[in-house]
Amino acid sequence: MSTQTPDFDVSNFERELILRNMRIDDYDSMVSMQQACFPEMKPWTREQVESQLQHFPEGQIVIECDGKLVASSSSLRLDYEDELEWHDYKKIADSGFIRNHQPNGDTLYGIEIMVHPEFRGMRLSRRIYDARKELCRAKNIEQMIVGGRIPGYHKHSGEMKASEYIDRVIDKTFFDPVLTAQIANGFSLQGLIPNYLPSDVESCGYATFLEWKNLDHVSAGKRRFRRTVRPVRIGSVQYQMRAVKDFEEFAQQARYFVDVAGDYKCDFLLFPELFTTQLLSFLPNERPGQAARTLAEYTPQYLELFSHLAVKFDTNIIGGSHFVVEDERLYNVAFLFHRDGAIDKQYKLHITPSERKWWGVVGGPGIDVIQTDCGPVSIQVCYDVEFPELSRLAVEKGAQIIFVPFNTDTRSGYLRVRTCAAARCVENHVYVAIAGCTGNLPFCENADIHYAQSAILTPLDVTFAREGIGAEANPNIETVVIHDVDLELLRRHREQGSVQNWNDRRLDLYRVDEMR
After folding, report:
1. Euclidean distance between CA atoms 414 and 336, whole angstroms
2. Hey, what's the signal peptide range on this chain (predicted)?
């Protein structure tokens, strides 16, 4: 969390989502969850869970939300054989005891995944599948195999065969809560297994035979030539301002973009600076300074909305920025909503003459670098990116990506932000994402017109995108641009680039120090 000690406490809006290895003291909660998920099936015995933890502890995974167990996963390793009785769940899982686990097996076999019914729709199964994939990469396991339930089949079993139902799920005619998620997570269908789990009445005993290949697998004795990458997917929203009738209509528009980011598996989604001024369109027409403080009264709803969306759609969200009143002072604050439920914030430090004149905004106390699950990042709100010292300080603290939510009314204002953001890439060997507003808000003083061209920018060298533009929106069109940046490429560029601005600084002549 930030080292700043603001008057406004965000902890009331945070959630704590933790993915970790299973422990035996999770047993009672797991049984309760199994009974909620599969009421017709007999839950694991304590002896089965103890045996799983004894033979393969790193393969047993759970997720807890605010201290409550909400999802779990069990697996083991085996050597793949065509003759192995993959169709027989009891044999392949050793009736749940996994005493047949092979520590060096080339296949990770998934026994079970379950998500508590009250927490479905939060992409928890995707988080577990991603954790399993990371386990395969870390242990150099060649593939993952699962016998997947098809719990939607019982609704159609009287009118079609199981194979026909599966075809309809794959071509998106039907939605199956398990198979649809597995296909979305990169599994390919290899076959259909009858009598896999007879007690599974929803699936009519059937299961799908699904496979995921680890493309990073290296065969024994072979040299790996594929370059190492550390990809991070960034989405940058170009948000159209328009009149809304209430907060819920604003929330629906924001939710749309987060849903898109979730579908594209974005690690970060960046909204523009002060896009919440859209709320002024339905608030009483007041002088700008008072209108900004009235807008700040929506801070709790804003925090609750984006904290929920970040967890639900498994995306770290930079929620643009928003007016916040602390100790009777008005600040322009950018919030980072982590997908594990935590919240960080960065104050705007440099206040434009317009903000000072119209709204009475004051500058915040300092620059922070925020630790995320994709590495350290910095947020610099609009005007802040036009001061190169901030990026120097942020990169000194480890930042690799700088997020710049901006809000400009003219093309010249936008170009100041864009030009300086591109310069920060060159000076500091970092990626910079910028996101702005377009559209109009009639009768909202100092927030009436907007100009933007959102983009994801890179350093300028032969290993990066042409002209240092990873992705770029068309001007003044509502959209979202998405681009993958490679943090490993960034590290190599700093050490081996055509020019090495960071390493070649003349620290004997000048330096940038933070004063606190």
Report:
1. 23
2. none
Radius of gyration of the chain (CA): 26
Instruction: Say whether 136 is catalytic.
Output: no
Nearest to 238 by CA among 265, 272, 280: 272
User: Does the pLDDT of residue 2 top 80, yes or no?
Assistant: no
Strands (E), 214-270: 231-241, 268-270
Annotation marks residue 37 as catalytic: no
Which helix (H) or strand (E) element contains residue 371? strand 370-372
The whole-angstrom separation of Cα 200 and Cα 151 is: 8
Q: Which of 348, 355, 386, 444 is catalytic?
A: 348
Residue 434: CB atoms within 10 A of its CB come to 31
Which of 14, 112, 273, 386 is catalytic? The answer is 273
Token readout for 112 is 């079970």
CA distance 452 to 409: 8
Rounded CA-CA distance 30/368 in Å is 39
| CB proximity list for 231: less than 8 A, separation 6 or greater | 484, 485, 486, 487
What pLDDT, on a 0 to 100 scale, did the predictor assign at position 466? 87
348 is catalytic: yes
The single residue of 266, 382, 420, 444 carrying the catalytic annotation is 382
Asked if the model's pLDDT at residue 293 lies above 90, the reply is: yes
Once rounded to an integer, what is the mean pLDDT over residues 239-244? 93
Whether 44 and 38 have beta carbons less than 8 Å apart is answered as no
Quote the pTM value.
0.86
Model confidence band, residue 319 (pLDDT cutoffs 50, 70, 90): very high
Residue 239 pLDDT > 80:
yes
Which of 430, 386, 434 shows the shortest CA–CA distance to 406? 434
- What digits encode the pLDDT tens for the residues 38-68? 887 888 999 999 999 999 999 999 999 999 9
Question: Tokens representing 222?
Answer: 């072979």
Please report where in the chains the tokens 């007999």 appear, as a residue.
Answer: 42
